[in-house]
Sequence to fold (193 residues):
Amino acid sequence: MARRGSYAKGVARREEILESALDVIGRRGYQNASLKQIAEVVGVTPAALLHYFGSKEELFTAVLRTRDEHDETGTGSLSPAQAKSAFLDVIRRNTEVPGVVELFSRLAVDAADPEHPAHRYFLERNARIRESIAGAFDDDPTRRRTLDPESMARVVQAVADGLQLQWMIEPDVDMPGIIEALMDVLYPPTSEA
Fold:
């Protein structure tokens, strides 16, 4: 029975670490979020962090998963207009956490290596986002489309990821506005939307 309690405490501690790391990275930035700083916020040693995550890359990958879980809360069966709005809301929230955007961008490049701990995360995340966007574009087969839903989803995702890089260099880039305009061009809204 003690084992089950220890397991629950370990899971709770892991979640606390992830939430703290997400906060530290969001506020201080990826470059300024060392294992030592994250450990201090949680009240553990850097070695304890590695006990839970194995490496800094695995911790940061888990941080991105946690961020995605926050973003996806309550986005079950949404109408196309609601899905578009939810996607734009995520982009708006990203402008409030530049450190997390930087972490995402840096890890995405590193994850191109199939051996990197974040490789699988990005494959799964990209597929999930494309499926969600394509589903929103595929709501009415009689509507005019510029591209097929899968291609539109790839274009929207590629532009969103690329805009994040531009925004990190030029913070006045209107990521949500540009993405909304792109989505409206690729899939013009109906009069009732």
User: Anything to note?
Assistant: The chain has one domain: 2-186.
